[in-house]
TrEMBL record:
<comment type="function">
    <text>Lysophosphatidylserine (LPS) lipase that mediates the hydrolysis of lysophosphatidylserine, a class of signaling lipids that regulates immunological and neurological processes. Represents a major lysophosphatidylserine lipase in the brain, thereby playing a key role in the central nervous system. Also able to hydrolyze oxidized phosphatidylserine; oxidized phosphatidylserine is produced in response to severe inflammatory stress and constitutes a proapoptotic 'eat me' signal.</text>
</comment>
<dbReference type="GO" id="GO:0006660">
    <property type="term" value="P:phosphatidylserine catabolic process"/>
</dbReference>
<dbReference type="GO" id="GO:0042552">
    <property type="term" value="P:myelination"/>
</dbReference>
<keyword id="KW-0443">Lipid metabolism</keyword>
<dbReference type="GO" id="GO:0005789">
    <property type="term" value="C:endoplasmic reticulum membrane"/>
</dbReference>
<keyword id="KW-1133">Transmembrane helix</keyword>
<feature type="transmembrane region" description="Helical">
    <location>
        <begin position="12"/>
        <end position="29"/>
    </location>
</feature>
<dbReference type="GO" id="GO:0052651">
    <property type="term" value="P:monoacylglycerol catabolic process"/>
</dbReference>
<keyword id="KW-0325">Glycoprotein</keyword>
<dbReference type="InterPro" id="IPR000073">
    <property type="entry name" value="AB_hydrolase_1"/>
</dbReference>
<keyword id="KW-0256">Endoplasmic reticulum</keyword>
<comment type="similarity">
    <text>Belongs to the serine esterase family.</text>
</comment>
<dbReference type="GO" id="GO:0047372">
    <property type="term" value="F:monoacylglycerol lipase activity"/>
</dbReference>
<dbReference type="GO" id="GO:0048899">
    <property type="term" value="P:anterior lateral line development"/>
</dbReference>
<keyword id="KW-0378">Hydrolase</keyword>
<dbReference type="GO" id="GO:0010842">
    <property type="term" value="P:retina layer formation"/>
</dbReference>
<dbReference type="GO" id="GO:0004622">
    <property type="term" value="F:phosphatidylcholine lysophospholipase activity"/>
</dbReference>
Length: 337
């Protein structure tokens, strides 16, 4: 009997070994698997959200709409008005929401990270915080995510973001428009801002929450790659497969081409995008020629706060931090940690 158990164990171990060794080869042969792992757009967590009903997420001053970045390609968008307008917003339709852009309130375009949709809980909580601070928040699902059409790609994400940015700019004229990216969305954000700066129209500020330097460094540090990180050939098997999909998210290069105020927020206990990558990006940004003369700020959040990868919205200091960036206050409060 004991031998039987040992035999079974051996067989299981052998299978695990076969799986462990095959995965790198499978990925090398089908690099599109790596693209799916980077985007995780098929993970619709939480599954039963009706994106047409932001009210279900407690957003009683949010309008769901669809825009068409390319002919025949619709993307789902949420527009949340500043929270002080919530009573007025009851029962209102698109036309009213559109007219609110003419008020003096600034607008934040929010670019979410991989996995899930614009209705993900940590995202919704941030919209609530920002709208309570008097901002409009406009968020959307890139092509391939949520109820948007199409399939994901870095180029597609960036051009969707650019389209929505221009759509907003048309409505805002000279009013402030800020860009906020989270996680993979920080890569989209720096791509977008680089494009805007290339054409001579930088945004009013860029906020990067839990950013990384580039996708290769991020993939290497991601918990998913833990069991392979030290395998010889890791770069060739895994990272080259990402590059083969034209996925770069090179924020480290982009910071040398952007010129607007930049704020980086990162929690020391971030287990998805490690803190040191956000710090490294900040060091690069603070040495960037194109950013010289602009405010470049790094705000770490101590591990004791347990904000990890998704919970910086909980920081009671966020209002002060934003006020500082957006020029309303001369100095960062000393208690921001
Ligand atoms: C609607 O949302 C606002 C802002 O988040 C909140 O203060 C208010 O209590 C909500 N009203 C209702 C009836 O839920």
């Amino acid at each position: 009997l004991r031998l039987g158990v040992v035999g079974k164990l051996k067989r299981i171990l052998l299978w695990l070994l076969v799986v462990y060794v095959s995965i790198p080869f499978i990925i090398k042969l089908c690099p599109s698997i790596q693209a799916k792992l980077v985007f995780l757009n098929f993970v619709r967590m939480p599954y039963f959200i009706d994106l047409k009903q932001p009210l279900d997420q407690g957003l009683n001053h949010t309008h769901n709409l669809y825009l068409e970045p390319e002919a025949g390609l619709k993307v789902g968008v949420w527009h949340t008005v500043p929270a002080q307008m919530w009573r007025e917003a009851q029962g209102k339709e698109g036309e009213w929401y559109d007219s609110t852009f003419s008020s003096t309130h600034p607008v934040i375009l929010y670019l979410h990270g991989n996995a899930g949709t614009r209705g993900g809980d940590h995202r919704v909580q941030l919209y609530k915080v920002l709208s309570s601070l008097g901002y409009h928040v406009v968020t959307f699902d890139y092509r391939g995510w949520g109820d948007s059409d199409g399939s994901p790609s870095e180029g597609g994400m960036t051009s969707d973001a650019l389209f929505i940015y221009d759509w907003l700019k048309e409505r805002l004229d000279k009013k402030p428009l800020y860009i906020w990216g989270h996680s993979l969305g920080t890569g989209v954000a720096t791509n977008l801002v680089r494009r805007l700066c290339d054409r001579g129209s930088p945004p009013d500020a860029l906020i990067l929450e839990s950013p990384f330097t580039n996708i290769r460094e991020e993939a290497k540090s991601h918990p998913f790659s833990m069991v392979y990180r030290y395998l010889p050939g890791f770069d060739w098997f895994f990272l080259d497969a990402i590059t083969a999909n034209n996925i770069r998210f090179a924020s480290d290069e982009n910071v040398n081409h952007i010129s607007c105020p930049v704020l980086i927020l990162h929690a020391e206990d971030d287990g998805v995008v490690p803190f040191h990558l956000g710090k490294k990006l900040y060091n690069m940004a603070s040495q960037s020629k194109s950013l010289s003369g602009h405010k470049v700020q790094f705000v770490p959040f101590s591990s004791s706060l347990a904000y990890k990868h998704k919970f910086i919205y909980r920081s009671p200091e966020l209002p002060n931090i934003l006020r500082y960036l957006l020029c309303l206050s001369p100095s960062l409060p000393p208690s921001h940690r």
